[in-house]
Sequence to fold (141 residues):
Amino acid sequence: MNQSKLVLLVAATMPMILGGCATTGSVKRAQASADQAMTRANEGFDAAGKAQSSADAAGSAAQRAQASADAAAAAAQGAGASAQGALATAQAAQAGTARIGGLETRLRRLEHWKWAQTHKKKAHKHRHHHAAKSATQAKGT
Fold:
């Protein structure tokens, strides 16, 4: 006999064979156990559904946190670049200020020289006056 026919025969005759052995009490106990198993299975499905919802919410929160972290990193890089630009600008301004100071000093010397060339008599008296005043101050100190 073919194996699948044998399984079919056993499956068809099993309730008749067991039917005579089962008592009302054992059937009730079996039904109660089946009901309890079904209740536990439904509770398990509910718990699994809640766990899946929690996992989905956690995944969504993690994605939002990652997006915030990426934005913060980009902002930090931009701030770093801005700070470097500001530092370079400050250094250039400081160098420019120093150069302007040197040019102003040179300009004053040139103006003084030009004035001295056009006003030789006054420049001689003026120079002498400062020299005498400096000598007097040096003696007094």
